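[recover] target loaded
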């Protein structure tokens, strides 16, 4: 089994493809078990966010896992192939370290990815698909990410999606203090966006969620109101700014709903931000007059302009990563020697057992214990030294020098002066 990382991200696939490849959290454990039980995959963990869907696994060949990913999402492998990357062994290790450290994020240095990766590990552990290899890989990834953030400025001055949303809204409306804002969802991203928008002291804030209790809990922090998702069609027209980020597999707002809201608003403009993958707002809404709709990819282009201040830290971060890649690969290669080491110890234990049994018989017969111990030590020494001595004696002239050097290293023998 070999280590692989395979998948797609915001650099290789457009939003329309990424949203089709999302693994929803409530189905992820079952998906992992299906993969490891039906395909020749030993270990597996899936990282699925708005910007990436990646499978980390141990397998003989990666193509079975690739086919499974396509089949699971009811897509043809040839449709996905142009967007997918397959990274073996060293490349997979380096990629995992870079992802955890924020070097592969749309927003360079953003910290959310580390939490998302830890959640992916937790789900894989719960599913029973995380073994020694992936456990070591991810724990090392977390340690590398901590080292990068501690010793570099990679996370300094991060321009977040939330901050970018506020900047875009300010281009549409002269003052956000006069606007009513609707947040759809109650997760971490919506909480972050609400914090940024609330700082602008808008006219009103409302949170909509499937669960009214969750909506109320978040709205209370910002002195806002709470509604249920089912109330959106009747109340959407009241809001000037809409920010949505849910885990729904289907759109929350369709074109028809938005058209009716705009009509009631007498075509006053509405600013909408869809941070969800799959999208919460139907793409056709962007074609409407009086609607300014931005997706996660649109905001990604904007935040890229703010990474210059952190670029100087990238080289330093990559140096830290390369050092740790070498260390992990050394551990990985040492695992290949485990069967040999076990066999060597088994051989020594067998020799020890034989000599101990012989000594016990001599003692039972009444022989002198001192002579028995001498015989035990000589017998064990002869058995353990027989193989390397024989190899040296039987080696050709060309082999002898190399074998002698290896034996000296193995037994830590100093060369005679």
């Amino acid at each position: 089994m070999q280590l692989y990382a395979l998948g797609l991200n915001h650099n290789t696939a457009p939003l329309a493809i990424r949203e089709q490849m999302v693994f929803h959290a409530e189905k992820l454990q079952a998906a992992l078990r299906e993969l490891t039980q039906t395909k020749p995959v030993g270990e597996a963990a899936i990282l699925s966010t708005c910007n990436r869907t990646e499978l980390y696994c141990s397998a003989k060949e990666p193509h079975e896992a690739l086919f499974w990913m396509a089949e699971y999402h009811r897509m043809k492998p040839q449709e996905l192939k142009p967007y997918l990357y397959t990274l073996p062994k060293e490349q997979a290790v380096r990629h995992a370290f870079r992802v955890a450290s924020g070097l592969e994020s749309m927003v360079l240095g953003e910290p959310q990815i580390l939490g998302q990766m830890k959640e992916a590990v937790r789900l894989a552990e719960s599913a029973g698909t995380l073994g020694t290899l992936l456990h070591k890989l991810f724990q090392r990834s977390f340690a590398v990410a901590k080292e990068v953030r501690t010793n570099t400025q990679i996370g300094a001055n991060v321009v977040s999606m939330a901050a970018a949303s506020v900047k875009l809204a300010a281009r549409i409306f002269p003052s956000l203090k006069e606007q009513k804002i609707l947040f759809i969802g109650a997760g971490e991203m919506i909480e972050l966006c609400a914090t940024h928008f609330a700082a602008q002291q808008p006219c009103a804030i409302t949170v909509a969620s499937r669960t009214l209790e969750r909506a109320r809990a978040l709205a209370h922090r910002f002195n806002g109101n709470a509604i249920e998702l089912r109330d959106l069609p009747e109340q959407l027209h009241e809001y000037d700014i809409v920010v949505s980020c849910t885990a729904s597999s289907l759109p929350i707002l369709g074109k028809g709903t938005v058209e009716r809201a705009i009509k009631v608003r007498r075509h006053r403009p509405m600013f909408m931000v869809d941070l969800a993958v799959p999208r919460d707002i139907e793409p056709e809404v962007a074609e409407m007059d009086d609607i300014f709709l931005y997706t996660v990819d649109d905001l990604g282009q904007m935040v890229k302009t703010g990474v210059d201040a952190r670029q100087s830290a990238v080289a330093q971060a990559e140096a830290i990563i390369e050092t740790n890649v070498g260390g992990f690969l050394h551990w990985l290669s040492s695992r290949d020697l485990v069967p040999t080491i076990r066999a060597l110890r088994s051989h020594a234990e067998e020799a020890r057992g034989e000599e101990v049994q012989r000594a016990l018989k001599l003692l039972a017969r009444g022989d002198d214990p001192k002579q028995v111990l001498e015989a035990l030590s000589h017998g064990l020494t002869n058995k353990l030294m027989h193989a390397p001595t024989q190899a040296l004696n039987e080696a050709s002239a060309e082999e002898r020098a190399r074998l002698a050097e290896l034996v000296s290293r193995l037994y830590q023998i100093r060369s005679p002066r």
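[recover] notes: The mean pLDDT is 91.
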